[in-house]
Every structure is written in C-alpha cells, then in structure tokens.
Design goal:
The protein is α/β, with parallel strands linked by helices. It has 5 helices and 9 strands; from the N terminus they run H-E-H-E-H-E-E-E-H-H-E-E-E-E. A hairpin with a 7-residue loop joins strand 6 and strand 7. It is elongated, with a radius of gyration of 21 Å.
Length: 146
Amino acid sequence: MDLNGIKESMDPRYRYMPALVVGMKGDLPGSVSGYEKLRNIWQDRFRICAVSSNHPESIDPLNDAIWDHLDIIRIFTKVPGKPPEDKPVVLRGEATVGKVAERIHKSFLERFRFARVWGSARFDGQKVGLDYRLQDGDIVEIHLKR
C-alpha cells in the first residue's frame, strides 16, 4: 500500500465495501481462459465467481458467495408448540441467542430463562443460554420468566 492508500484508509470520508467479481457468459468460447486471467489478476483481493444464464447450476455458487460475502445469517424463531415463523430474523456477523432475543424485544434479555435450538445444536431442541452461537438456518424457541 502506498502513502495515498494509507491516507485513504484513515480518512472517514472513505468507506470500503466488500466486493465480489462475477464473470458472466461463462458458456461462450474463450470464457474459461478469460476466467483464468481474471482469477490470476484479482483472486488475492476479491472472491470471483463464473456464471452462465444457460447453466442454472452455476448460479448456486454465486448465491452462496453473496450470502458469505454479506456476512449475514437467517435465524427462524418459534413459539412453543407452534411451527417456526416463515420470516427469519436477519443478523450480521456472529449471532447469539442473546442477539436474537434483543432483536425481538429488549425486555427478552431481562426475562430470559433459556432457549431451545434446532439445527446447529448437538440434538434438536437442545436447551441453550444467551451466549450460544447460532448458524444460518437455525430455529430458536425462547422461553421467558413470567
């Protein structure tokens, strides 16, 4: 990094956003060599995905890359005795049961007893505390003190 790059990184007016390079038209002649050139130049700085609208299976890795790059996970909540909600709670970075409880309502942290987790837990419905780290797609059922 040169001196200007250092100045930019310390200037609050600059904000660096995560980027993803997407190589389109991966089914055309010469696209494989073009993709290799792109990778050789940029793979140290960016995640690179090659896609083709003629090959729908190439879209799945792109979807995965977008979710990973945004650093967000979806947690589904559940009321005891009912099925999980359709709409997830979306959190950035590391997600804990405490963050989910707080997102639902701040009073949930004060009244928290325990939670049950389906998905990443050792067994479905495992009792966990506020510090339990959740993973994308987990289902959380929060139990409160009365």
